[in-house]
Amino acid sequence: MSVTSKLYEGKAKILYTTDVPEILLADFKDDATAFNAQKRGSISNKGAINCSISSKIFQQLEQKGIITHYVDNPKPNQMRVKAVKIFPLEVVVRNIAAGSLCKQTGLGLGTVLKQPLVEFYYKNDELGDPLLTPERLLLLELATQEQVEQIIHLTLRINEFLKDFFRKCSIILVDFKLEFGLDSQQQIVLADEISPDTCRLWDTATNDPKNRVLDKDRFRQDLGNVENAYQEVLERVLKTLETDV
User: Fold this and answer.
1) InterPro entries of this UniProt entry (predicted)?
2) Cα–Cα distance between 82 and 69 in angstroms, integer?
3) How many whole angstroms separate alpha carbon 139 and alpha carbon 151?
4) How do residues 194-203 score in pLDDT, each as one tens digit?
5) Is 111 within 8 Å of 101 (Cβ atoms)?
6) Which residues does 4 contact at the CB level (< 8 Å), separation at least 6?
7) CB-count exposure of residue 130 (10 Å: 0-12, 13-18, 19+)
8) Where are the alpha helices (H) located in the chain, listed in sequence order?
9) In terms of pTM, does the model score above 0.85?
10) DSSP labels for 39-57?
């Protein structure tokens, strides 16, 4: 299988077509962005770390019956994936109050939510990726009512698995972002990545609001040691998988 041309370049990945039409190649970049790309930088080895974490988690989810776009890893920073039509939606799951939820609601950082909060954001940089009400989502025809219900169901299943998995890694899953797409059979498929770029992850070993951060908030907030935090997550993921075997 060989690469034929660049299909798309985003903030964190480059997608290439291959000589197999239903398979794409995702190249994970070391580039880092925050605040809708208003802040830019680079995190050494981020691409390979995120690719590895995402691949391991996708494989675990597949074993739980969650269909993903994952195929395999030809290189440490590359993932072959099934070609899917991505919904222009970011699906955010919140277990603990942080980030924009605190700013927009006044909830204190670290407030544990009584139940997971699932939110939809419109993937549109020009509009600033706005939060959507269910009615606006349907008005814009970004997905059907049935698809929205399926996505919420899948999202909550993924959340339960991830909370338990990261707990075994001595990590608290605060919140995270998912993306979904439709495959050639019109099945809803989990896509994109699951990594410190897309999850808020707190170390259970400390309550210090800065030292506990193991995700991209270290870059957003200029906390330093960003690569070390990402590497720590990878090492814990690998160790947990070895222990579970």
Assistant:
1) SAICAR_synt/ADE2_N, SAICAR_synt_PurC, SAICAR_synth, SAICAR_synthetase, SAICAR_synthetase_CS
2) 5
3) 17
4) 999 999 999 9
5) no
6) 16, 17, 18, 19
7) exposed
8) 46-63, 100-105, 134-139, 145-168, 217-220, 226-244
9) yes
10) EEEE-TTHHHHHHHHHHHH
